[in-house]
Amino acid sequence: MSQPAPQPNPALTLIQGIVVHKTSNALRITFSDGPGEPTAVGVQGAGDGKGKKFATLLGFKNGGPGKHVRTFADGSTLQVESREMQPTIITSADGTEFATVHRGDTTSAVRAGGGEILRFSSDQEEARTPDLFRMVVSDPGGVELGRLDVIRKVRGWTLARAVDAAWQTYVWWDHAGQALPVPILGTRFLGRAPLSDEQRRTLLCACVDMPVGLRPYIAEMN
């Protein structure tokens, strides 16, 4: 008698972001948490001035520092200002600061006015491989919320790398079948615990800062 197929644990979260080039040559990362409409989209340099946008159009800026814009499914936006050798600043559409990301060997996202939101640290077993970077995402108390992969090569999308017995079974959708002409192919978050709205928005902005802004969040990314 055949055994029933294992079912995904509904308490777990899977958020996948895929990076492509727009016709303007700007990088775009589209996030989904299942088949269907995307949950958010990030666009390289959407908040930059005309000069920087023109450089992107000519192909001189394939990711990197700039004012990238994240648009959520509800139409709200956050600007992710990726900066060289300085913290990343996340602001709302009216210019109000939402959070600051302080990068280092580990990285901390701090809300405006103080108070940590998320912490990013190296996975002890697989922080860097030819295919991906992997980090642990924790709450301010150090409790693990999930694992975040930054995908470097197509093989990094492989199901076996992401899912072990603890994660049970997932169905993957829309991941890249061929290498794309982008510096980083995308991100994948596997969450072990529910995220607050603030944590989720911060995480998705971090997932723009790394593959589009090309900012390192753990020592192994330098």
Number of strands: 12
Question: SSE order, as H and E?
Answer: EEEHEEEEEEEEHEH
Characterize the main sheet. 12 strands, antiparallel, barrel
Q: Report the helical percentage.
A: 10-25%
Uncertain runs: 53-60, 163-180
Strand content: 25-35%
What's the helix count? 3
The tally of structural domains comes to: 1
Q: Overall mean pLDDT score?
A: 82
End-to-end distance: 52 Å
Strand order of the largest sheet: 1-2-3-4-5-6-7-8-9-10-11-12
Radius of gyration based on Cα positions: 17 Å
What's the quaternary structure here? single chain
Shape: globular
Describe this structure in words.
The chain has 222 residues and is mainly beta. It is built from three helices and twelve strands. The protein has a twelve-stranded antiparallel β-barrel with strand order 1-2-3-4-5-6-7-8-9-10-11-12. Strand 8 (107-111) and strand 9 (116-122) form a beta hairpin.
